[in-house]
Amino acid sequence: MLPRGRALRALRLLRSGPGAARRTSCGAGQRAVGRGAALPAGPDLRHFLRGAAAEETPPEVPPGSFSGAGTVYLETYGCQMNVNDTEIAWAILQKHGYRRTKELDEADVVLLVTCSVREKAEQTIWNRLQHLKALKARRQQQAPGSPLRIGILGCMAERLKEKILLREKLVDVVAGPDAYRDLPRLLAVAETGQQAANVLLSLDETYADILPVQTSAGGTTAFVSIMRGCDNMCSYCIVPFTRGRERSRPIASILQEVRMLSDQGVKEVTLLGQNVNSFRDLSEVQFQSAATPVLSRGFSTVYKAKPGGLRFAHLLDQVSRIDPEMRIRFTSPHPKDFPDEVLQLIQERHNICKQLHLPAQSGSTRVLEAMRRGYTREAYLELVQHVRESIPGVSLSSDFIAGFCGETEEDHQQTVSLLQEVRYNVGFLFAYSRREKTRAYHRLQDDVPADVKQRRLQELIAVCREEAARANGAMVGQTQLVLVEGPSKRSPSELCGRNDSNIKVIFPDAETEDVAGCGALVRAQPGDYVLVKVTSASSQTLKGVLLCRTTLARAAASG
């Protein structure tokens, strides 16, 4: 048993059985009903940080402290941050003697890295647990002395905490996004027949000293986390409550990881963060009094300006210098944090992709205000125009929510018109899903019927696809530089890759001239750059003919 001194408010061992865990109460019974009723105060940053500064994060477990290492099976759900979290968790477990398997039946430990941004994402996990319940029961019959241990990691673990252990007794371990260092200890506790949980949010955890183990060995692309958490507190979003406050990795550790990936032959790195372009490295004392960058024109925040630190433009500059043959992308940014120096850098550097994600969420100023996005429709469109003037030929993608609280048909039509006016190459669209703890849950009424949400969502998807097809159609007849990823899933005689705009490109797997070498005939391999002349386009894919193999620098010089 652990000494009592290491017990924390948000870190506890939960013995099997409902009596051992403290239940939390939060539900519809606490919410005001009716126009005249007083509304409870909505949550703010203190809601999930209260007392955190006074608590002590448990120390990282030294390798070899626990002898229960076995074979682990990892499944990842949700966004790219969860892919990176999986790699971090695996790096920690590998260091402690665990082996990894791709076969579920071989595993001693099954860990699900989860998403909580929408109810559907959580339901997927509950359904998966039902399948694992049968597997765990079968294992218990076949090998009573070697039970299967199951863990829930990530955002769903942070949001529901011990409720997961109460609802599903088969779950042995619950670990939030800031608790992966504690996984070896939690799994060791689970070996004793107890349930274990650590859902403490940290003010400074970035896993800067842990080099993630790439989950796809030999891959051409990789994700690099540069910051964690979010301070924006958009009224619909659960992220601040599942991943905590914004904190950035030291630039030195990021550059070390990117250099390592370059040495491994990775040809494209995506810098990751919940609010990636709000990056602010405070690790170097001489930069702690640096001036605060100016927000995009017409944008505001719910928090005070944060002075000091090395900012995203500096990081992007340094990362792009490491390897001229490595493409650099970043996601997900907030539209408020696009100073001119970032846009200018994207335009100037041949290896920074001319593709930006500008999450709009709605085309209605009234809805944007209810969402607490910090801008109007007009300010957003002004930013889009400025981006396109600064980076000619830039491709844009965006996020939209259909059926947010109080959204009228007129509001919806304004979103439709925004999609038509901007003409994104890619769109990510979802129906609004109410999440506990958010300001919208406490202060707004989820009053758009489910069938109306779905109808509006389908209308947005149709318009987005139509406009994307037109935007991609403009590339027909053009020559695109494509990073080869591998064989096409639909045909073994074709290869698949992505262009600078992050659009999938399909082309024949045939011999081609190598203009970067001696002009010999070669076959393109994953990680190669090739030139493809586009012959047809849809809303999601380009098709073309292979022209030659080249390099990123040569293509930029000749373009």
TrEMBL record:
EC top class named in words: transferase
Chain ranges of the Radical SAM core domain: 216-470
Sequence ranges assigned to domain TRAM in this UniProt record: 473-548
Family matches, as PANTHER family: CDK5 REGULATORY SUBUNIT-ASSOCIATED PROTEIN 1 (PTHR43020), MITOCHONDRIAL TRNA METHYLTHIOTRANSFERASE CDK5RAP1 (PTHR43020:SF2)
UniProt cross-references to InterPro entries, sorted A to Z: Elp3/MiaA/NifB-like_rSAM, Methylthiotransferase, Methylthiotransferase_CS, Methylthiotransferase_N, Methylthiotransferase_N_sf, MiaB_methiolase, rSAM, rSAM_horseshoe
Gene Ontology cellular component terms for the protein in this record: cytosol; mitochondrion
UniProt protein name: Mitochondrial tRNA methylthiotransferase CDK5RAP1
HAMAP family per UniProt: tRNA_metthiotr_MiaB (MF_01864)
Gene Ontology molecular-function annotations: 4 iron, 4 sulfur cluster binding; metal ion binding; tRNA-2-methylthio-N(6)-dimethylallyladenosine(37) synthase activity
Biological-process GO terms, alphabetical: regulation of protein metabolic process
Family indicated by similarity: Belongs to the methylthiotransferase family. MiaB subfamily.
One family name in Pfam for this protein: TRAM
Organism: Turnix velox
Keyword Membrane found: no
Cofactor(s) for this UniProt protein: [4Fe-4S] cluster
